[in-house]
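in:
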């Protein structure tokens, strides 16, 4: 069983920790356990419970009304939400629940069904990317068991790979972008997501994959002369130093703009040296692709 902190619940549900504490005091639906030092922690069931409650509250149900519902009634109400955004969030929450429970069959079936209805691109942008953003903080803080992470990432990787293979671009952007992950970084879902979006828009993609030494990137750059480099960094190994990595890019690959996105740059406040460009969210990433 996993144990989640109140900060984990805040990140996953969108409900501020202060509000969660108030709900604990006033209502009966959230009852955290406590460590011997009196620190709150939450079980898998409590996580699933708060995800449904937060969704209902966001889309119009008063928290006092939700408190009077049974668990079954709350589940029914979440299924009946008809706003498009609410339905997307519900699916993302379901994926979180299936991951927590190691329910790979339900996880894959949910993605497959959404792909059949909405198509692979909508599934990637509406569901997979939102899911990855939601659980990314848990990966960074090691609050996900490695088995849970491997289970879901392998399923998502399969869906992305099939989507990439089946693309027939309708236009050509007349650009070449080299995709890579730095040494000690093996989390390639974000990079595969970029591969899909770029290929869909007719960009020529050179995909080097994960754990690539910067010297190897430089070799390919000298031979292929790409218009951009791109890497999406989620959770590299402990030996990875972001400042050193950025400095090496600036020193050794200064002639080619290098776009960097991912969890690791979200709180980076230091001055960014050329040719590095940060894209801190999906909107900035999509704007970059649209302007190619």
């Amino acid at each position: 069983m996993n144990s989640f902190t109140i900060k984990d619940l805040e990140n996953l549900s969108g409900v501020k920790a202060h509000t969660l504490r108030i709900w604990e005091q006033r209502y009966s639906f959230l009852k955290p356990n406590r460590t011997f030092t009196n620190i709150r922690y939450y079980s898998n069931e409590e996580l699933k419970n708060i995800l449904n409650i937060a969704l209902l509250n966001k889309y119009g149900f008063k928290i006092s009304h939700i408190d009077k519902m049974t668990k079954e009634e709350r589940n029914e109400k979440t299924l009946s939400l008809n706003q498009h955004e609410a339905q997307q969030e519900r699916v993302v929450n379901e994926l979180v629940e299936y991951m927590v429970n190691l329910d790979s069959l339900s996880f894959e079936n949910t993605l497959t069904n959404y792909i059949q209805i909405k198509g692979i691109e909508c599934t990637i942008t509406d569901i997979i990317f939102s899911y990855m953003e939601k659980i990314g903080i848990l990966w960074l803080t090691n609050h996900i068991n490695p088995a849970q992470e491997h289970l879901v990432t392998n399923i998502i990787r399969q869906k992305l790979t099939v989507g990439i293979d089946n693309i027939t671009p309708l236009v050509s952007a007349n650009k070449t972008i080299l995709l890579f992950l730095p040494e000690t970084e093996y989390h390639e879902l974000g990079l595969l997501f970029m591969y899909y979006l770029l290929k869909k828009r007719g960009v020529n993609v050179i995909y080097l994959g994960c754990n690539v030494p910067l010297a190897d990137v430089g070799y390919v750059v000298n031979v292929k002369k790409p218009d951009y480099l791109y890497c999406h960094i989620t959770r590299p190994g402990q030996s990875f130093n972001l400042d050193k990595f950025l400095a090496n890019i600036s020193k050794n690959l200064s002639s080619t703009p290098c776009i960097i996105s991912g969890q690791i740059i979200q709180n980076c406040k230091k001055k960014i040296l050329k040719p590095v460009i940060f894209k801190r969210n999906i909107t900035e990433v999509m704007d970059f692709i649209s302007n190619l």
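note: The mean pLDDT is 88.
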